[in-house]
Amino acid sequence: MHRGRIACATVIGFAAYALYRATLLPGVDFGDTGSLQTTVGTTFVTARDAYPLYFALGNAVLWLTRAEPAHALNLASAIEAAVASGLIVLAAAELSASTAAGVAAALTFAVSYTFWSQAVIAEVYALHMAFIALTLLLLLRWQRQPSDERLLWFFGAYALGFGNHLSMVLLAPAYTVFLLAVAPRGWRSMFEPRIVAMAAACACAGALQYAWNIHTYWLMPDPPHGVLETLQRFWFDVTKSDWRDTMVMNVPRALFADRAAMYLFDVRQQFGLVVPFVAALGLVVLWRTDVRRGVLMAILFGANLAFAYDYNVGDTHVFYLPAHLIVALLVAPAVASAGRLAAMGAPAAAGIVAVYASVRGYSDYPALDRSRDDRPARLLDAFTTGMDDRRSIMLADLNWQVQNGLSYFSSVPRPEIAWTRMPEVILYAPALVADNAAIGREVLLSERARATVAAAYGPLMPIVPDIRVVVPALSSAADGLAPGTRYVLCILKPSRDSPLDRVELARLIQRLGGDAGALPPQADYAAIAGIVGRAPSFVSAGSRPFRLHHALDGVDVEIRLESWLAFDTIRRMGFGHVVAAHQHTLIVERGVSFVAFDEHGGALTTAYASNIFAPQARYLIRTGDP
Length: 626
Description:
Elements: H1 3-22, H2 32-39, H3 52-65, H4 69-96, H5 99-110, H6 113-119, H7 125-144, H8 148-161, H9 172-182, H10 193-207, H11 211-217, H12 226-238, H13 241-244, H14 256-271, H15 274-289, H16 291-309, H17 316-319, H18 321-341, H19 346-368, H20 375-383, E1 392-396, H21 400-409, E2 419-421, H22 422-425, H23 429-438, E3 442-445, H24 447-457, E4 463-465, E5 486-492, H25 502-512, E6 525-531, E7 538-542, E8 547-552, E9 555-561, E10 576-580, E11 583-588, E12 591-597, E13 603-609, E14 619-621
Parallel strand pairs: 1-2, 1-3
Antiparallel strand pairs: 3-14, 4-14, 5-6, 5-12, 6-7, 8-9, 9-10, 10-11, 12-13
């Protein structure tokens, strides 16, 4: 491999790391991220947790940095995404025979919206992209110069990748067809005993990563009985069979057209309008120069696209990432061919693509900058104020995303917090309350836990609001805002368990200077912007996501509603953004998101309602005499 090519890959990797490091989420987050952050640093990794390689690397970063686990695992993603960017340079250069084209392809993907968003939080997808790029690179190098050693490297890397994400299996059809098609002594040679033995040995070695997860079974209160039950439980947990069976290939056929519209929206969000056409040209070029490579890339793209397209999960956008990576890789052969045909040379053509990627990166930078996002920690800190295990215990029934954040919060920064899930104790709640009252501990409840206790036990367990936790009304967000203050209010269709309080919403609009008529209709997406003390400057609503620019008293404001609510229930980067004066002013969530800001785009007041970032009420089970 050329030293110059490796040098370029190293430079791109370091540049990508600097970008992701600058926009890194500083601490805990909700959702799957919170669960991963809770698990890292412990040797107790169950088969349900899975991802043994991911956690091993996260533990290494945690040990090296001595940082808080949440920050360390976020940083691990930035490192893995940077490595992926460098490997993409090498893989794309191998695909196109041009280092400059490889750099262009890597830059295109490095600043793509979803990949960037996953590179700054604790998630498994940055490492998954690194393994896709690595295995493709090794496979193409083996085609160019076949040897058992190079084939062994490919088998080993592919098997190792399963320790991070089982969707590596989606690469198998394309890789198998390619191996059989390019085998130097014919397809039958791939079934020679030594080749089969190499593949089997690598598969077994890769599977050994999961011995960590299996061993954890024997540390649990109910270890399995015998090898067969162990393997059955392991397979059920590691593949999450209880819910994947209802999600894989389970998008209702009536929604296929909307799913197609979502995919087109998602591709445009990643690359704009130009890159997909360039990638299509790249596939044509590849098909004409080496049909076997063309078939390889087409099957890789098709298999990953088909899986994500029919995967009925709330964060489909992250499962499109492998297909997006193939699109970016196909930019390289198009760039190399354009450089030759236009007599400008591949470096000049690559430079044009690099400028295009840089412009898109500059545009998206504010929206993807999570470096000041401490919303989860602030929400949990307010919700758990005054709690410690000597005086209180919480019975919680929260949205699963918030609950994962609470698991981390009560394990690392606030280990003195004692809590348990209400569904696990509801059958013996009176005894639990009595035992805690006997040792002087109060029993606290979340909102849904309060409803559960009230329905199950009624007046036998009197409940009162815990006045130590203040839940301000949405309309109070207008308190203290001086006339002339700029604001944006976004209203996205909430999830079913968080209905909108349209009365309180109308009250907020009126206090900002509008009237009830300014309240938009019940559309999926709506935005209101204006100046406090005046009628709203504009009101926009619709059934599809939109992006618009508007000047508020001399400040350029961009409202980006960047989600597809028919399918998106989870958006770790937010469901949209408000960017003012090219600063990240507000992350928009489902439900109500509000911000008032100054002339520099700095947030003065933010407020959320009907979503996971809305303030959480707390209640107290009253014991003893009133």
